[in-house]
Amino acid sequence: MSETETGSVDDADFILQSRGAGHELGAWVVNVAFGADGKSAGFALGDGSIHLADPKTPETAWRKLEAHDGACLSMVADAGSGFLSGGDDGKLLRVETDGSTRTLADFGMMKWVEHVASHPSGLRAASVGKVVHVLGKDGAKLKALTHPSSVGGVAFDAKGKRVAAGHYNGASVWFVNSKDDNAKVLPWKGSHQATAFSPDGTHVVTSMQENALHGWRLTDQQDMRMSGYPSKIKSFSFTGGKGRWLATSGADCIVLWPFFAGGPMGKPPLELAGGDGVLCSQVACHPQHEVVAAGFADGLVLMAEVGSGKIVPVAAPGRGAVSALAWSPTGTHLAFGTETGFCGLVDLSRR
User: Fold this and answer.
1) Helices (H) and strands (E) in the chain, counts
2) Domains of the chain, first to last
3) pLDDT digit string, tens, across residues 141-174
């Protein structure tokens, strides 16, 4: 995108420059996350390294960890203050904020730990091929849940009682504490990838290999097709609170589907921050307010308020497509990374 409501591209870097800092990390930023306590930010890179930063001092206090022998494939905040990381070296790691790492599981060099998920209770999940491995707070392996094909995404519900995984021809939902381990299968033809529960636990949504999202209402398994995108949806996020909106990438704007008053069936989506044909590549919803941060293929990062449509730029274009984006738990800080290895960390708290 070339221009915002607040002015030219030259103005778009104001928040990054005045309230944060940017760094060149040298490799594709795969994921970014804040620790559950909000005191650290982690950037996982395609070269296997993880970089840790203190949100209070984004200009300094960065630490580089040589975490994986290969690429880092996924990273999320873990329970407490650390991070959970999976790599193509077959390892599932717990990364502490002091820079130390601990191997929770080693599945072997020929295995990829492609998707990871964590719950505040201490539960973890990691997908390796067709299997989702569930681990407890102490790192003990609790379950190995086998799917009909390679897993495309994994997620816990808000209560940590269920885990969902996308795969070919649908998604599967498992009860973590069930003794029989029989999945509730949600069928839909095609390859299902990134997976999420709605905040209230009533829906499961996946992105697809096709340029579409698919969802299921769990009470009756009613299907929800969300299509019409010009490209694949690499990122989607429910708005804070009750999750009234589902924000998605994949178009030349932020696309938001309504998940209230009957859900998105038969309703058009809301579109924000579009206009010049540059694809939105990443979205992340504020944890408390109906505000969406978005990153674009030209490197622009901005924030959009759902109710008013107001757009505020965070970082200017020109640093590579935005590949990772995350809010701190309280929504006071925003972090992002790009395909070229640039990352930014900004303080949006009141002053």
Assistant:
1) 1, 30
2) 9-347 (2.130.10.10)
3) 999 999 999 999 999 999 999 999 999 999 999 9
